[in-house]
Each structure stands twice: as structure tokens, then as C-alpha cells.
Write a structure and sequence with these properties.
This protein is an alpha/beta fold. Helix content is about 35%, strand content about 15%.
Length: about 400
Amino acid sequence: MRVLIVNTSELTGGAAVASSRLADALQRQGVEVQMLVRDKQSEKSSTIALLPRWRLRWAFLWERFCIWVANRFSLQGLWAVDIANAGVDITRLPAFQQADIIHLHWVNQGLLSMRQIQKILQSGKPVVWTLHDLWPVTGVCHHPGECMLYHTHCHDCPQLQAPAARDLAWRVFGQKLAAYAKGHLAFVAVSAWTAERARESALTQGHRITVIPNVLPIDQFQPQDKAEARRQLGIPADAAVVVFGAARLDQPLKGLPRLLAALQKVVSGGRPLHLLLFGTLKDKSWLGRIPVPYTAVGRVEGALALSRLYAAADVAVCASDYETFGQTLAEAMACGCTPVSFDRGGQTDIICHLRDGYLARYGDIGDLAAGIRWALDAHLPADMLRQSVAARFGEEAVVRQYIELYERLMA
């Protein structure tokens, strides 16, 4: 069995990390895998960088230009949507032609256009598409929020600056309908919540949707000595430490204001805290609004460095509107750190409320604060937290599900 995994980046972003981990896990289980990317960041011979670079750069810039013009020359919302009007043809590549399964992941920002996606689906090869967000099942947005127009046919998109009955969302939704009707396509949702949202879309009707979580390389995320981890990070040994991380911390979806409001409530109850942040901040003024002592380490790469952060913390908090999976929570649990999140999104597949973490009522800051206090007092055994995620998201369990899906599609 030969599988071609396609993702815009090899290592940057949650989808890139998840797809790269899956590629490695499949290879270790004996599957022949190649990964096709726009941005290659390792020396792996099994990862192929698309060329020529100028064509990829042009596709990226042309898409942004068209969105900017459609938004009446406003930069607001420029990165909230993708219209897939430009990209590269991968069907002529030997890696594509030799593959038995084409496995798409996050393919936006100039990698694949809708025309090329349709060509892939018309190739006759089985196509699996893992939903790292909801773009494949909406018109142009990655996160529809409370909008339900994608249930029927997107139009008057609230994420466009010039919504209309036949706007970009309407046009791209129609292109997806036409493309998906042509091919042998199966969607994979990384959580039950994501699958539920995807099944509501008119674009998924008649297509298989399977729930398979992201693979967690459990051997790479190991508990470390808490005192030593804190010493290396310059965190007081006796502090109650909360860790919060994202690729971009102040992206509205991630809920940084909710986290800070919850920490204020915990502190006002007499509990001293220390906040450990990892990820980038576009607006540095957020640092001045943190109500507790903090350590911000910026962007962190590699399981060893991440494990040190989780080991230094007592509680890992996710305050997002939702996550399709909730990778940081699973990683934190593997390192013995207790997770706290809202009860919405893929996080509900990871946390069993009051057993291995806390699920606060969505949007309830007081309950999120209560969850942080509960997690600090619970002192859950590190080995119990680790075993909880290893059994569900470990390499063998996830890869077995993917291989079974591939074999069904090939049959």
C-alpha cells in the first residue's frame, strides 16, 4: 500500500504537525508513505517539496489579492477565508501517480486550487481528507462559528467585508459541490464534535465521514522532573503553574481574554498563580494585561521542549471557542499535566469530566476558573493521565484505524 499525504507545510501549524506525525507512524507500521508539501522543513527523504517556488508564491499572493479586492480593499478578515483560486497540479507527479491512496490534510494558501482538487478527485484514486478545520465542508471559512449557511449553500458570508447572495462563499461552495460529486472521497474528522459539524454540511452528503483522532507520539512526550523543568524555565519552584499555548496566542478563536479573566477570578480567591505561555503574540500589549506573574517562551518546536513546558505546569488550559481536536491537551496529559477546557469541540473527546480533567460550561468564565481550582487541588496521578491518552491516541490505535479505512476504500 502506497499513501501520499498532502499538506501545505511539513511542520508549521497544527495540521502540519498532525499529518507529519501520522506519516511517521504509518511508516513505522510498514506502510509506504510519502509526504508532499509546499514548505519542507526537515531533511526527510520521504518528504517532497513542490517546485517551482515562484509558482507557489504567485498562487499564494494571487489568492490574497483576489480576497482583498473582493473585500473592497480592506485587510480585515484577509486571513479568515481561503478561496482556492490558484495552486499547483500534483497529479502529474510520480509520487501521485504511484500512490494507491491520496490523503489530503490542510491544503490552503496556494497549494491546491478547486480546479486541482477536482482533478485529484477525478483521477480515480481513493481520496481521504482529514478535517483539521471546517474549510473543506464550508464555502470559504475555516471556522464558521454560529453561522449555519453551510448546511445548505453558503452565501452572504459574515466573514467577508462585502457579503452578497452570490459572493465568494457562494461561488466556492458551488465549486466544491461540483468537485465532490466527481470522486471517491472519504472525510476523516479528528473528533466526534468535528464529525457532527461536518455531517450538517450539504457538501458531505453521500460521502463517508469517519472519526479518527490525531496520533499522539506518546514515546516523545514523557514526564520530566518538575523541579528541574521549572529551574530551566526560571519559574518559582513553589508556584501553582498554568500553561497555555497556541501557534498564535492572540488569535480570537483561542480565547486569551477568557483565560485572563478566569485567572483573575482564581487570584481574587486567594490562589497565587504563575502563567506559562508558549506561542507567538501579534499584539504584544496582551502581556501587560496578564493579572499574574508569567513566563512567555515564544514559539516552541519539538516534543522534548514541549514536554519540559508541560512538566513545569500543574494545569493545561484551553480557552478556545472550539478545537477540532485539542492536541496541546493530549500532549499535556501524556506529560502528567491536568487539562481544563470548555465543553465544546474536540476537547470533549480528550477530557472525561472530573476523572482526568475538567470541562467547563462553554463561555462560563466562572466555571473555567472553578476548573482551574479543581485541577490544582485534584493532584491527579501522572501515570493515570498518561495511560488515558495513550490508550486512545497512541500510534498503534490510530494507525490501525487509518489502515482499515484505506483498505476499505481500495476494496
